[in-house]
Design a protein that fits this description.
Strand order of the largest sheet: 3-4-5-6
Oligomer: single chain
CATH architecture: 3-Layer(aba) Sandwich
Order of helices and strands: EEHEEEHEH
Low-confidence stretches: 1-6
Helix content: 25-40%
């Protein structure tokens, strides 16, 4: 497994959704984003994205998936609804997308 360096965040391409999410949250925290994640979603609306990130005027929703993970219908419905809101960014993040997600976090710094 290759190791990548991005800023002060050292990342190995994560293979689990949890590892990918932790890597994104770590980078977002280092870049001073406000990060929200529902840790126990059993009583929450099904399908809501894993991460909600806010910084300045930027609002970003991220659904984390493994390389082969599939979106549920309810996840897809939420992502489509959120993507329709002007100015809101929505991404499905997979391990191979990590570099681009980290660049988005860096580029949206205000």
């Amino acid at each position: 497994m290759s190791t990548r360096r991005w800023g002060r965040v050292s990342t190995r391409l994560p293979v689990t959704e949890k590892a990918l999410q932790e890597t994104i949250v770590d980078a977002a925290n280092r870049l001073h984003w406000k990060v929200y994640h529902t840790y126990d979603s059993r009583k929450s609306q099904p399908g809501f994205p894993d991460l909600c990130l806010v910084k300045g005027k930027s609002l970003l929703f991220i659904e984390c998936k493994t390389s082969s993970g599939k979106l549920t219908q309810k996840q897809g419905d939420w992502l489509v609804a959120l993507q329709a809101v002007p100015g809101v960014l929505v991404h499905v993040a997979r391990p191979n997308d990590l570099d681009s997600i980290l660049e988005i976090l860096k580029d949206l710094e205000l």
